[in-house]
Design goal:
single chain, 261 residues, mainly alpha, two-stranded antiparallel ribbon
Length: 261
């Protein structure tokens, strides 16, 4: 080992004893940055003005949850129905009531099949566009991050671990392979580092701390909606019981009857 770290065998304890703590420090640095950049909490007494089901849906799960809640709302109010005989295609029905902008945007793209990813993606994009004013307002209030801001935050939180992996890990791996040295342990450590980076990217959310507080508050208020069996007793005044339940808790709270009735 007289030549320093560059002469240490790839599987030697001395090099791994250097690399693993360095990776851990980089990972912790990314986590600390993510916590630091999560944004402020709601101010004392600050409360959104009775957010609608579509606003809650977007705050919880972005355009994917918004599209799901919107479809539920259309079925709930009789503006659409599921046709099980046509591969569970969602089709529009004759409907005279006034629809919200988000509901109109979704209904214009019917019929749509669950097996048509392109059509579903377009529906998600259009419903998101119909909510653009609200999304911009949340960004101004600090409840939500723009796409560019969310991407930058994700990149910076992963950057320390990525740099350590590439500079101290990947280069050593290539050198070890070229020299015919055993690199099994090093390869395993690097795979774990890349897995940690993937997890950090996947779990990121555009919600700020304030946005998360809003979601938590309304989930607590509407705990009864976690189960479709409670929809009658927990019926909301505006009739959006099922849509609100899906917005806050996902489709697992629904009973089959809401799609077929």
């Amino acid at each position: 080992c007289a030549g320093g770290l560059n002469q240490v065998d790839m599987n030697s304890k001395s090099y791994l004893a250097f690399l693993i703590p360095t990776l851990v420090v980089a990972l912790v640095a990314g986590i600390v940055y993510r916590a630091w950049s999560a944004g402020p909490y709601l101010a004392p007494g600050e409360e959104p003005d009775s957010p609608r089901w579509d606003q809650l849906a977007y705050l919880v799960g972005g355009k994917e949850r918004l599209a799901t809640a919107t479809i539920t709302r259309l079925v709930e109010r009789g503006a659409a129905r599921v046709d099980p005989e046509r591969d569970e295609m969602l089709i529009a029905t004759d409907h005279d009531s006034v629809l919200s902008p988000v509901e109109r945007a979704a209904r214009q793209h019917l019929p749509v099949s669950k097996n048509d990813p392109a059509a579903i993606q377009k529906l998600m994009t259009e419903t998101e566009a119909a909510l653009a004013t609200d999304i911009h307002d949340w960004e101004e209030k600090g409840w939500w991050r723009s796409r560019s801001s969310a991407r930058t935050r994700t990149l910076l939180s992963v950057l320390p671990l990525f740099l350590v992996t590439m500079v101290f890990g990947f280069g050593r791996l290539i050198q070890g392979i070229q020299n015919g040295n055993p690199v099994g342990y090093l390869f395993l450590v690097l795979m774990l580092a890349f897995l940690a980076m993937i997890v950090m990217v996947l779990v990121q959310s555009p919600r700020t701390r304030a946005g998360q507080q809003i979601v938590d508050r309304y989930r607590q208020r509407h705990q009864q909606l976690r189960s479709g069996d409670n929809f009658e007793s927990a019926k909301l005044p505006d009739g959006s019981t099922a849509a609100t339940a899906v917005a806050l808790f996902g489709t697992s709270c629904l009973t089959a009857s809401i799609y077929t009735s």
